[in-house]
Amino acid sequence: MNRQEKMINKMREIAQLNPEKIHIIETNVGAEMQLEFFETLQSFTKEDNIPKPEQIWENLNKAETSLEEKKKSLALLASFGEVDIFRMIEKYLENPEKELQSWAFLAYQQARMFLEANLLDENKIYIASGLGGKGHRLRYAFCFIAKENFTDTQQNIFKGEIEYSFSKNDSILEELSFTGKYAIGTVLIALHVDIVDLIENIIKEINQYGNFLHENIYITNEKIIDTNQLDNLFKHIENSDNE
Fold first, then answer.
1. Which end of the chain is more exposed for a tag (fewer CB within 10 A), N or C?
2. Which CATH number fits domain 137-242: 2.170.120.40, 1.25.40.10, 3.30.980.10, 3.30.70.1290?
3. Taking the model in full, what pTM does it have?
4. Please, are residues 150 and 181 in contact by the beta-carbon 8 Å criterion?
5. How many CA atoms lie within 13 A of 190 on its CB side?
6. Is the backbone of residue 127 left (phi > 0), alpha (psi -120 to 50) or beta?
7. Predicted confidence (pLDDT) per residue in 38-66, tens digit
């Protein structure tokens, strides 16, 4: 078992035993920007000569301040975990510069987390992904592939089975649509659920009614599936099934 698998298993264990300790960030900010934000946040050290919040706020609102410096200023403000500074970010978010709108939203969320941790004096685990989530559930976009175009009967079978399977596993189907061979949607999956086992069981159950699904699917928590790329995606999955 590698380090990532150990981490995922530990997170599942915590989510199952103490779900109140898990907080999933509800955002649709892209994964790359989220990573950049958290790397910026983690780059600050106690040894840094951090300016006072008022100075940071002033620098943020100067027209001549570069975009990179403003991003750093927002991340710095988010790190304080104090009510007055949280209000600063909240005020900036009311009318942010277009290029900094998503970054400011991340700063606002992070500031709120630090503030809650300070006020409640308790540690929580915060999880971010490209598609966000709710409560203890992460949002995933998925695409199941049928061997031929879905018939009306197959659509009904698929919808019924997938709703039942998700519900049974503390997960929530948000959207589902059919386009030819594709069943596309989004789902909120509880963090403690083993996604691989869940998907394998869904396909196994559905294929009892005519074996019409490919065994491989596409699922991601990074971004919404681009329907214009589905044909290329289907070729890859079909080829892997035939190997």
1. C
2. 3.30.70.1290
3. 0.63
4. yes
5. 19
6. beta
7. 788 778 765 567 888 899 999 999 989 99
